[in-house]
Amino acid sequence: MPYSANVLRRANGLLAQRRSAREAQNEELREKIYHQLPRVAELDRQLRRTMAELARAALGGGEDAARQVADIRRRNLELQNERADLLAGAGYPPDALDGKPLCAKCGDSGWVGGRMCDCLKILCTQEQMKELSQLLDLGEQSFDAFRLDYYSQELWPEWGCSPRENMEKVYKICRDYAQNFGRYYFDNLFLYGGTGLGKTFLSACIARTVSENGFSVVYDTANRVFRQFETVKFGGDEEETAQAKTETRRYLKCDLLILDDLGSEMTTAFVQSALYDLINTRLVGGKGTVISSNLTMDDARGRYSPQIASRLEGEYRALPFFGDDIRLLRKG
Ligand SMILES: [Zn+2]
User: What is the DSSP letter of 200?
Assistant: First the structure.
């Protein structure tokens, strides 16, 4: 699950902040308890001394050493008991000063044996949502907020059903796809139809749900995606090129890519090859892609190379959007 480098950096930053806040809090509590119970401070000093004595005695060896070690252990235990009693008397648990981490699983490091801990995953998801919401309005876009009643119930003869009936199906597939991301019948969706029919809204709903479930999600318009590939290939200034490389890596590797508005770009030979690379690399890598487009599959076949068209037709579940522009209704 490669989160983007930026997301990971910010999430790690938050974790570090959390660690230092916790340390500061522990230090404050220690001062408070030492002030309130000076004997605890004294006991802590003695306990540190007995630990040093224990180490020295253990190094000494021989029968005498074994007796010494047992002695020191006993004393150490007495000190610990006295300390626990004092703390309990003032209403603290015995481990009040042990500096417990917020996440017991990873000790607030964010990693457990080379795997990302859930606590860091949650932070990554939050940061990713922030990143996504710079491009997508995630404010109210959720499956729960989706309004089917914007779609007409009148029969559209060329489709054999009403826009509402169609959207019920489309909505359900998008929701199931998002909720079962990675385990659904289809890895890829092709949402097509005119503007103002809810393609971007549903894309945002998918982005939100998949992201909330801990996957890396990238949303971008086809125009911008191809511009980044162009910058990598033909170069801009150094900083631009470096940034474009990072972006294109995300397009290729994220768990879910939402490619919005395919067909709005100038379809040059370069775009053809970049699009094929993008679609094919993601298919081979087993990564999910949601494309939204004003083009029908027929249009796509006319516009793009046969290799691209056959990937789209063979590997994408096509979902039509038709009806009257619902943006007018939503404003009214
Ligand atoms: Zn953790």
Answer: H
CB 256 within 8 A of CB 210: yes
Quick one: CA dihedral 219, 223, 224, 229, positive or negative? positive
- Cα 132 to chain centroid distance, Å, stands at 10
- Let me know if 72 is exposed, middle or buried by CB neighbors in 10 A (0-12, 13-18, 19+): buried
**What pTM, to 2 d.p., does this model score?**
0.77
Are 290 and 259 contacting, i.e. CB atoms less than 8 angstroms apart?
Answer: yes
**Cα(122) to centroid of ligand 1, in Å?**
9
256 Cα to the center of ligand 1, angstroms: 24
What is the distance in A from the centroid of ligand 1 to the CA of 179?
24
pLDDT tens string 44-93: 999 999 988 888 887 876 777 888 888 889 999 999 999 999 999 999 99
From ligand 1's centre to the CA of 11, what distance in Å? 12
Q: For residue 97, which of 44, 45, 52, 50 has the smallest C-alpha distance?
A: 44
> Do residues 154 and 144 make contact, with C-beta atoms less than 8 angstroms apart?
no
For residue 200, how far is its CA from the centre of ligand 1 (angstroms)?
34
Q: Tell me the backbone φ, ψ of residue 190, rounded to 5 degrees.
A: -125, 100
**102 Cα: distance to centroid of ligand 1 (angstroms):** 8
Cα 152 from Cα 261, distance rounded (Å): 24
CA nearest neighbour of 123 among 222, 282, 13? 13
How does pLDDT run across 285-309, given as a tens digit for each residue? 999 999 999 999 999 999 999 999 9
The SS3 of residue 141 is coil
- How far away, in angstroms, is 106 Cα from ligand 1 center? 4
